[in-house]
Design brief:
Chain A has 288 residues and is mostly helical. Chain A has twelve helices and two strands, in the order H-E-E-H-H-H-H-H-H-H-H-H-H-H. Chain A has a single domain, classed as MetI-like fold (Orthogonal Bundle). In chain B, helix 2 crosses helix 3 and helix 2 packs parallel to helix 4. Classes of the chains: A mainly alpha (288), B alpha+beta (355).
């Protein structure tokens, strides 16, 4: 081993220690708990079993899993539909204005997550801003029940994670070689066909990165469903939370958590592989 | 300068383009003939690429017009113009194979699938790319990418093909080969080529006509021979090929005087009793037996195989004169560094300029 690698290994040590202590070790503990039996008042009894994993596929829990996938999926879809045009608009702005526009796009992110989520309660409740606005505009029916619904959860998730998605798509768009777009126009494709055939395919890595990001964060989220969703366990994150803190069934909570982590890691690996393959291609095009 | 020809395939009429306060193209007019190989030659920043981009439709002129045949295309979108551009960076679509890159332009014309396939396969054959049809651009060498870019533009059968520094990214050997290859291909397909280049040798070798640009204007437009042998001004003279410049003045007797020597040159309507610059190419100076011409001392010799470049210090100018002599020419053997030589100018090849 050269002294160069020795030194760089040494510098990585704090990060490795941190990850090992607070990421790997807890994961191993949770993984181990998933195969144990529940204790009467929380905790675990050291009797090995695979029952916890069998319970995960129980229709009751499988349904919550599917709901989570649907909510996270819709949040991902809407976030991309909002973020792509936003990132595109930022890219079209003069080069000097772009950092400022990005700053504004990310600005909400610097406030507290809970405060941002509570703000939506203020907006969406039956006496909230939106219902008041509708009444002011002449609507005189029953106030709309916007809060405590799947829709409210999706709105909250999209709102909270949108900056990441914009940043991911922006970074892909801003690296796109403008001559490829010009070449497409030159070969007879109008703006719209150029977008579908050249711009979008070449910025898919950014869309995938942003999409996987918000999907992974959404599917495991429990704060937003708890505050905006109302129901007891609407998403898998709430179910896990409940097993540990209410139902006192740590092993089952651990098993659910492991399944969730497996889903996330699979998605992240797929995304990393796809973007590695893609970035080679776009970098090449830029260098000619 | 308007160099008009009858029935031009493309005409550029007093086109102006400004970027902020900079004038990139300053009222250029040009007529390009059918099937011509035309070169826009100039140093970087002379406006040649901006002019090409206006013809392609990527920049809108601030003034003037561009006509293709009898159709005004000044404000047409790039996709509406029946001409194609080969980009300097080639701009091959990285997510498509060579075959798909070629088919792209034809798909945009909504041609039947069968016809697209036939034309792509034919073009791949013409450009010797058939073996690479299923490769992605990342898997191609520089020369191969260049051929794909050319094929992708040619397959559209454009009225005019625009080429932006098409050989700029290739190494010297390949560049020389491709110069002839491009010329051959242009004859074969019978399409008008307009090429942008900063390489004067490239322009002279390939083009039927050359326009020399500087600061957004055309300084001279003519055949390579005209531009090389009768440059219109000092800039063109210096930009194209090697040139010796000698500062002096034209006397009342119409002789050019510098450093105590008097030379008879074609005045070409220039003023007498005024300062002037004499330009003469290294190959138009010959070595003479001692005592019969302009005396000088050889300060350096560069060996070029077939011929030699001598640097000869004379009383004519502060800088040594470049003299190109055949390796077997008279007196060459004696012309070593430090030797005293005599030079004679070919009067017919001398050009005088007044600023």
């Amino acid at each position: 081993m050269s002294s160069q690698t020795a030194r760089s290994n040494l510098m990585a040590l704090p990060a490795i220690a941190w990850l090992g202590l607070f990421m790997i070790v807890p994961c191993v503990i949770v993984f181990a708990y998933a195969f144990l039996t529940r204790g009467l008042y929380g905790g675990v009894e050291y009797t090995l079993t695979s029952d916890n994993f069998l319970r995960v596929i129980d229709p009751l829990y499988a349904k919550i899993f599917l709901t989570s996938v649907r909510i996270a999926g819709l949040a991902t879809l809407f976030a991309i539909l909002i973020a792509y045009p936003a990132a595109y608009a930022i890219c079209l702005a003069p080069k000097r204005a772009q950092p400022m526009l990005l700053f504004f796009a990310v600005l909400p992110f610097w406030s507290n997550y809970l405060i941002r989520t509570y703000a939506w309660i203020v907006l969406l409740n039956r006496e909230g801003l939106i219902n008041n606005l509708l009444r002011w505009l002449g609507y005189d029916g029953e106030p709309l029940s916007l809060l405590y619904s799947e829709g409210a959860v999706i709105v909250g998730l999209v709102y909270n994670y949108l900056p990441f998605v914009i940043l991911a798509i922006y970074s892909s768009l801003s690296r796109l070689n403008g001559e490829l777009v010009e070449a497409s126009r030159d070969l007879g494709a109008g703006r719209i066909r150029t977008f579908w055939r050249v711009t979008l395919p070449l910025t898919m890595p950014g869309v995938a990165a942003g999409g996987v990001f918000i999907f992974v964060l959404s599917i495991g989220n429990f704060v937003t469903p708890a505050l905006l969703g109302g129901g007891r366990f609407q998403m898998i994150g709430n179910l896990v939370y409940d097993q540990f803190l209410t139902a006192n069934d740590w092993p089952f909570g651990a098993a659910l958590g492991m399944v969730l982590i497996a889903v996330m890691v699979t998605l992240l690996l797929l995304q990393a592989r796809a973007s590695a393959r893609f970035s080679g291609e776009t970098a090449e095009a830029k260098n000619g | 300068m308007n160099d008009s020809v009858s029935n031009p395939v493309l005409s550029v009429d007093t086109v102006v383009k400004r970027f902020g306060k900079t004038v990139a193209v300053n009222g250029i007019s040009l007529d390009i003939r059918e099937n011509e190989f035309f070169a826009l030659l100039g140093p970087s920043g002379c406006g040649k690429t901006t002019l090409l981009r206006m013809i392609a439709g990527f920049e809108v002129p601030d003034g003037g017009s561009i006509r293709l045949g009898d159709r005004d295309i000044t404000h047409d979108a790039p996709e509406k113009r029946p001409l194609n551009l080969m980009f300097q960076s080639y701009a091959l679509f990285p997510h498509m194979t060579v075959w798909q890159n070629l088919a792209y332009g034809l798909e945009m014309e909504s041609l039947p699938r069968g016809e697209i396939a036939t034309r792509v396969d034919d073009m791949l054959k013409t450009t010797d790319l058939s073996a690479l049809a299923s490769r992605k651009p990342t898997e191609l060498s520089g020369g191969q990418k260049q051929r794909v870019a050319l094929a992708r533009a040619l397959i559209k059968r454009p009225k005019v093909l625009l080429l932006d520094e098409p050989l700029g990214a290739l190494d010297k050997k390949l560049r020389e080969k491709m110069q002839l290859e491009l010329k051959r291909l242009q004859h074969e397909v019978g399409i008008t080529f307009i090429i942008v280049t900063h390489d004067q040798e490239e322009a002279l070798v390939m083009a039927d006509r050359v326009a020399v640009l500087k600061d957004g204007s055309i300084l001279q437009c003519g055949t390579p021979q005209e531009v090389y042998e009768r440059p219109a001004n000092r800039f063109v003279a210096g930009f194209i090929g090697a040139m010796n410049f000698i500062d002096g003045e034209i006397g009342p007797d119409a002789l050019f005087r510098a450093g105590g020597e008097a030379l008879a040159c074609d005045l070409d309507g220039l003023q007498r009793n005024a300062r002037a610059v004499l330009a003469i190419r290294p190959e138009n100076i010959t070595l003479k037996p001692a005592g019969s011409g302009i005396a000088g001392t050889v300060v350096d010799v560069a060996y070029h195989g077939l011929d030699r470049q001598l640097y000869v210090k004379t009383a004519l100018s502060p800088a040594p004169l470049q003299v190109r002599v055949a390796a077997t020419g008279p007196g060459v053997a004696a012309a070593q560094t430090g030797a005293t030589v005599s030079l004679a100018f070919d009067a017919a090849a001398c050009r005088l300029f007044q600023e």
